[in-house]
Amino acid sequence: MLRVDIEKKLGEFSLQASFTSEGRVIGLFGASGAGKSSLVNMIAGLLRPDRGTIVIDGETVDDTAAGIHVPTYRRHIGYVFQDARLFPHLDVAQNLDYGRRMNGLAPDPAQHKRVVELLDIGALLDRRPGKLSGGERQRVALGRALLSKPRLLLLDEPLGALDEGRKLEILPYLVRLRDEANVPMVYVSHDVAELRQLATQIVMLKQGRVTSFGGVRVLT
Amino acid sequence: MRDISPAEWTAILLSLRVAVIATLIATPFGIALAWLLARRDFWGKSVLDALVHLPLVLPPVVTGYLLLLTFGRRGLVGAFLADHLGIVFAFRWTGAALACGVMSFPLLVRPMRLSIEAIDRRLEQAAETLGAAPWKVFFTVTLPLALPGVLAGMVLGFAKAIGEFGATITFVSNIPGETQTISSAIYSLIQTPDGDAAAGRLVIVSVVLALGALIAAEWFARRATQRLHGN
After folding, report:
1. Beta strand pairing call for A68-69 and A209-214
2. Which residues have CB under 8 Å from A67's CB, separation 6+?
3. pLDDT tens by residue, A67-95
4. Domains plus CATH for chain B?
C-alpha cells in the first residue's frame, strides 16, 4: 500500500498530491513538467516534502508534522531511473549483487536465478555496463533494483531513453515483472499506450495537481 | 649506477623514505579534503581552498620558517608533541617528511578533487536507493570511481616531495644521514670543489624520478576516464 499526501514548492512550481493506492502498478501519468519525477523522488526520500505524509507498506517514511524523514537508504525501495545508472566500475553480476550486499541480506540463489531468467540477462553477467546496449542496461537496472528485495519498486520513465524498437523489446519483461515478481510498482510515464499495458491504477498529474485518479479508463 | 657513492645512496634512500611517508600520511587527509571541497558547501570554503594552495605560491623558505615556528622544539605545536607524544620534528627526518607533506599537499589534493567532482552524483543516489548508507556509498561508489585520481594525486605528491628543497632545508637543515635529501645533497655538492660529477649523478636520479612520476600520473588519469565510461 502507498499513501501520499504532500505539498512541495520548487521555485515557481508547486506540487500538491494526495492519493492512496493498493494497486499493483500505480501509473503516474502526466506531461513533462507535471511533477511526476519530483513526486517519485519524494517517495524515494531523495526530495523532502514541505508538508505532508508518505506511508509505504504501513511505515510512515515522511511526516513533516512529526518531524519524520526516513533517509532513502532505509526505505527499502527499488528505483529504476530513465538512465539506468549502473555502476561503471562493477560488472553486471556485481551490479546485481550490490543491493543485497548493502542491505546485509544472505545470498538467495533461487531468487537470483528467477530474476536473471525473468529479465533474460544471464549472458551479460560478466560484462561491464559500458559494453551493454540501452535495452540491456535497463534490464540489468531492473534486476538490480529487484534483487535488493524492495517493498516498492519505483520506475521513472524506464523506457524514456529507448527508441520504439527497444521499448517493444523491454515492455514484455515489465508485464512479466508485474505478474510474477509480486512487488508493487509506481510506474511513471507520459506514454498512454505503455500505461494501458502495465498499470492497474492511474494517478494523473497536471501542473503539480492530481486531476484524476482511478482505473486505466481515466487515460481516455 | 655503480658510480653512486654510499653518501649519495644515503641521500637517495632518505629522500625516498621521506617522500613515501609524507605521501602515505597526507593521502587520507587529502582524500577527505578533496571530498569536502568537491561535495560540500560551507562557510569559509574559499579560505580553506586558498590555505591548501598556499604552499604552492608562498616562498618555500617562508613555509619552512613557519613550520619551524610552529613545529620547532619551542613552537606551540612542536613543544606539545615533543612533551606529550615524544614526536620531534626539528632537525629530524620526520621534520623533512612534514615539510615535504605540506609542500606537496596542493598537488596531491588537486587530482583527487577533480576526480571526485567528475563523478556522476546520480550514481551515488542510485546506490542510496539500493540501501547503501552514506559512508557505504563513499567506499563502494565514490572512492572506487575516484581511485585513479587518488593514485594520480599520490604520484604527483610523491614526486613533489622527492624534489622539495626550500622548506625542508629551512625547517630541518642539511644534516647528512638525517635530513640531507637528494635536493640538499645536490645543493651541498655544487658548492664543493670537485662535486660536479656527484651532483650530476643525483641530478639524473631526480630527473628520472620526476619523469617517471609524471608518466605514471598521466597513465592513472587515462584509466580514470575509462573507468567512468564503464569499459
Report:
1. unpaired
2. none
3. 999 999 999 999 999 999 999 999 999 99
4. 6-48+59-228 (1.10.3720.10)
Task: Tell me which DSSP letter residue B15 carries.
Answer: H
- Residue in A closest to B143 by C-alpha: A89
DSSP structure class, residue A156? E
CA distance A220 to chain B (A): 34
Kindly report whether the global pTM for this prediction surpasses the value 0.90.
Answer: no
Domain boundary assignment for chain A: 2-88+151-219
CATH superfamily of A2-88+151-219: P-loop containing nucleotide triphosphate hydrolases (3.40.50.300)
CA closest to A97 among chain B residues: B130
B227: which 3 cell numbers?
Answer: 573507468
**For residue B130, which residues of chain A lie inside 8 Å, CB to CB?**
73, 78, 98-99, 102-103, 144-145, 148
Instruction: Look at residues A16, A72, A65, A63 and name the one whose alpha carbon lies nearest to residue A45.
Output: A72
Q: Which three cell numbers stand for residue B228?
A: 567512468
- In A, minimum Cα distance to B223 occurs at A89
Specify whether the backbone of B161 is left (phi greater than 0), alpha (psi in -120 to 50) or beta: alpha
- B157: closest CA among B28, B20, B40? B20
Give ∠ CA B203-B205-B209 in degrees, rounded to 5. Answer: 120
pLDDT digits (tens, 9 = 90+) for B134-171: 999 999 999 999 998 999 999 999 999 998 999 999 99
Interface of A with B in 148-207 (CB under 8 A): 148, 154
